[in-house]
Amino acid sequence: MDLRDSPDEAAFRARLREWLAANAPAHWDQPGAERLEGAERLAFLREWSARLYAAGFVGLTWPSEYGGYDAPLSHHLIFLEEMGRSGAPEHVTPIGLGMAGPTILSHGTEAQKARYLRPILTGEEIWCQGFSEPEAGSDLASLRTRAELDGDHYVVTGQKVWSSFAHEADFCILLARSDPAAPRHSGLTYLIVPMRAPGVEVRPLRQITGDAEFNEIFLDGVRVPVENVIGRPGEGWNVAITTLMYERANLAVMLTVRLEIALSRLVDLARTTRRRGRRAADDPLVRDRIAELWTVLQALRFTNYRALSTLMSTGMPGPEGSIVKLVWADANQRLTKLALEIEGPSAMLSGGEHAVQDGLWQRLQLRSRGNSIEGGTSEILRQIVAERILALPRSR
Amino acid sequence: MDLSETAEESMLREQAREFLRARYPIQRVASIADGAGFDRHAWQEVAALGWAGISAPEDAGGAGLGFVEECVLGEELGRALFPGPFLTTVVLTLPALTGAPDLVKEVVAGETVATLAWLGPSGEPGATRFPIGAGLAQDRPGLYGSAWFVPDLALADLAVVAAEGPAGPGLWAVRLDQDTISRQDLPTVDTTRRLGALFLEGALGRALAQGSDAERLLEHLRDRALAFLAAEAVGVASRALEMAVEHARTREQFGRPIGAFQAVSQSLADAYAEIESARSLVRWAAASVAARAPESARAAAAAKALASEAAVRTCERSIQVHGGIGFTWEHPLHRYYKRAQWIQAFLGWPAELRARIAASLLDGPGDENERV
């Protein structure tokens, strides 16, 4: 066991840090800093992504024939960690990089790999995901969006929901029912849907915070060429499992780094907030809860390292990685609530000069309620642990 | 970085599990616990496996491995509720004897069982760190005073005693067969790991370390014990969870195995998440303490806090899932629960350990919130 970076990993980390220090915009999305919006923001992120890629930091583990860098998985983990810690803007298409790209690499045709992979890395094309539906949340296999074969096209009709980036996306990885007569897991087909095609309509979905991070996608007779099927028709469920596996692996590291940033902000808040004549950081209850969150954060970090070590030495993901999202959601919800409690009565203020940090924690706390729902509800994640890892009898 | 288990570690784990299954099945542990306690002479067989000298250098008769391997053993010993003096002799005492090679040799050979006597009547580490007076009266050489909450004291031949002398704090190796020494058993809830009180009336000891060396050594011993106990707690919790899962798969009520009810399965999934979180911290703490890295105190504190809570909670969940049978003396679960509680209470409850972590995060000059 060695907790340190190998010499090669350390050199990569140093080069990345140096590059980010020299190139990343200062105060990106920090409270109080000026924030780019709309087309201007998108243009900036595209240009930023192209530079990240040209500098050798995007597509690290992808094969060089598709524009990648053939680097070991540990470099990708270091990239996710350092990007998070630096506060630099994310790549413009996280769904392209983390979900669509790896799925095409695993299940796509040669033509699909040649067509779609490189523009993901350079940030020229943006991707979104169309899995969840109003009537298919945790029970994803009950989805109803239809894909009917008509000559050399599928005609797609239905509705998708909780789709981030759909309003700016060029393509959507979409799961649809192509054979309504087949058993529910075997009648699904995985498609690449061009988002500019006729019949696609995107509407923003306003969430609990007042922001619209996600969208609904309405599909009405959208014609998708058969060469856009990933994997074989009717085998979309297995392809979707690949997508979700990659989502989980990437998210585990990104979420842990975000928790680390949030905890250091919380520590600052506790040290600078005065309540009843003393620092909030001197309240023994606050101290205990901060130390507990710090302990959970370290557990998440080292669980990620364990999962990566297992993957690198055996080629198979170990079971330990499956707990990260579950533990993280609970920790982030507790952390943001503690911040409000530290603020005291200011917790009621959403912004303005009397609010703490312009209402940052109020937004983060409300947003955190989604953490135990998105990407697999905590109940579903527990049931996966119970049935697949502990081998308890199926509950349904 | 690479946190995976090495081939050597896996071999050690398998060897340990095999030996403990054959020689210390839970029925035997239960009869030891309900009887006179661990037989001092049985230690020889365990030491013959190379465990007493696992991290002692090869020229001292040891196996030349390290603290990471001690923690691998710790998890297996915890799983089996091993009632022998590994924690005391190997984890808490051996590193203090480095300056006394003859004593190291005795311990490594399994001839001597040793323990550490450094807690006062409150049992709290730190507050009365050096409870025993050393040669306080000028005309009376020797060690005077008492130490409490001394684990495995009844079995021990030798104690490393922490004492405050005229020249400051120090550690002494004290043979326990002297007339000037008496011991008292403290009735202990977990009878697989008993505690005692030690009384010294002018006992003779060999000086092992003095002044700040002694303080640093004690801190190192404390961190070793915290990380090792965390590993033990992971073993205890893993076994308690396995028993709950076995029961939930076979016990039927309302016509189905109770594990098919989500109130049961989700509770056990939470136990799994807590145990794996603790296991990750144990790997970190073991490697940090082995390297005597600057973060080892925080890592060991975090690991023991989380792992002991995970073990106590997992045992509680397991008792609940077992229903009435889990509440009986006959069922072995209560023994795991009591060991988990012992681990939780020894060398700092979780909240006390977190108070130390909080001080490092919140009381520095401003940039203490470092990433370790």
Would you mind describing this structure in some detail?
The complex is a heterodimer of chains A (396) and B (372). In chain A, helix 6 packs antiparallel against helix 7, helix 6 runs parallel beside helix 8 and helix 7 runs antiparallel to helix 8. By secondary structure, chain A is an alpha+beta fold. Chain A is globular and about 75 Å long. The longest helix of chain A has 37 residues. In chain A, the strands form three sheets. A four-stranded mixed β-sheet of chain A has the order 1-4-5-8. Chain A has a four-stranded antiparallel β-sheet with strand order 2-3-7-6, with no helix packed on it. In chain A, strand 9 and strand 10 form a beta hairpin. Chain A has three domains: 116 residues, Acyl-CoA dehydrogenase/oxidase, N-terminal domain (Butyryl-Coa Dehydrogenase, subunit A, domain 1); 108 residues, Butyryl-CoA Dehydrogenase, subunit A, domain 2 (Beta Barrel); 151 residues, Butyryl-CoA Dehydrogenase, subunit A, domain 3 (Up-down Bundle). Chain B has 372 residues and is an alpha+beta fold. Chain B folds into three domains: 102 residues, Orthogonal Bundle (Butyryl-Coa Dehydrogenase, subunit A, domain 1), CATH 1.10.540; 91 residues, Butyryl-CoA Dehydrogenase, subunit A, domain 2 (Beta Barrel); 149 residues, Butyryl-CoA Dehydrogenase, subunit A, domain 3, CATH 1.20.140.10. Helix content of chain B is 49%, strand content 15%. Chain B is built from eleven helices and ten strands. In chain B, the strands form two sheets. In chain B, strands 1, 2, 3, 4, 5, 6, 7 and 8 form an eight-stranded mixed β-sheet that branches. A two-stranded antiparallel ribbon of chain B has the order 9-10. In chain B, helix 4 runs parallel beside helix 7 and helix 9 packs antiparallel against helix 10. The longest helix of chain B is centred in the middle third of the chain and has 40 residues. Chain B is globular and about 80 Å long. The two termini of chain B are 14 Å apart. The C terminus of chain B is likely disordered. At the A-B interface, helix 6, helix 7 and helix 10 of A face helix 7, strand 10, helix 8, helix 9 and helix 11 of B.
